[in-house]
Amino acid sequence: MSYLDQITSPTLLINEPITRANIKRMADKAQRHGKKLVPHWKTAQSREIGNWAKEYGIREVTASSIKMAEYLCGQGWDNIHIAFPFNPLETPKLNRLAVSQSLSVQLVNPVTTQKLVDGLSNPVGFFIEIDAGYGRTGVHISDFGTIEKILRIAAQSDKLRFKGFYLHPGHTYYTPDKAGIYEQSRQALHMLKMKYQSEFPNLVTRVGDTPGCSVTEDFGDVDEIGPGNFVFFDLMQAELGSCTKADISVCLAVPVVDINRERKEILVHGGGVHLAKDVLVDSEGNKNFGEVVFLDESGWTIPFDRSYLKSISQEHGIIRASDSLLERVKVGDLLGILPIHSCMTADCMAEYLSLDGKKIDHCEGQ
């Protein structure tokens, strides 16, 4: 039976060969530059896809929450890093997980550090997150007082081990000067390494965002890279130049429920609860919530004439249709939608369907 015969409602499809090619490309790049690849699993959130990653030499992984880390525990990872400023209310759960799984957390202030010193019963590593210009979270690169206070407090405990510095230059998503931002990030981490390496000879530095890691070929003396979105890619990444549309390995299959040929619009069952509401806006101010592809037995093809979701509500999606799409589509057909932001789409859908008809796990679906 074709995978298409299983679909009666919005379904997130995954193309395994493209996904594997994306993982392999980044793993090969890391190896070529002598860096360890520790992917951020906030995009895939899947044990099965994690097993694919291990086939390309990936041994450590990053989670965005302790819930996700718990889901990934017991899967053979050498270490799971929780790349979110640690929430001290979750210390009891961290202790339970650390009994049988190597874990590390992210610290950004002395208060949380002290709470871990007081509350940990099992060994846990930690990175200090650094802010070198993004402005979302982390200790500012010039705030040595806070860095050293965190280190002094952590040294009071034999359960809390300093691993190094973590930097996420997320502003690469908002500027064309990715090379400039990465140069700043490299310089920031190099400076910290030189300052603290004599005291902590085993410290490592990690940088991670998909746009930068996809286009950068000079990582300097950064030890580890930790992108996440590269596993699937999406239209936003294609817009940023991280990939081509042919590299996008997930798409949302949606049923066609109505067609208005006068307005050149197609109504599909697929809205914000399936895709989230990330949007791209073109030079003329048109909103794009996802682009149409044609589904077939082997996956999907990208049409020459672009059709796109012009608006979405909770369950509804309205496609601005090209003439060629209107000629071939009918009510009851299935169309594919390439997502703007694959991480959020996958989180909404909480499960994947492979092209051979197999369901693949997602953390939110368990």
TrEMBL record:
Coiled coil: none annotated. It comes from the Bacteria. Residues 249-356 form the D-serine dehydratase-like domain. The keyword Lyase applies. The keyword Lyase applies. Keywords: Lyase. Belongs to the DSD1 family. This is Alanine racemase. It comes from Algoriphagus aestuariicola.
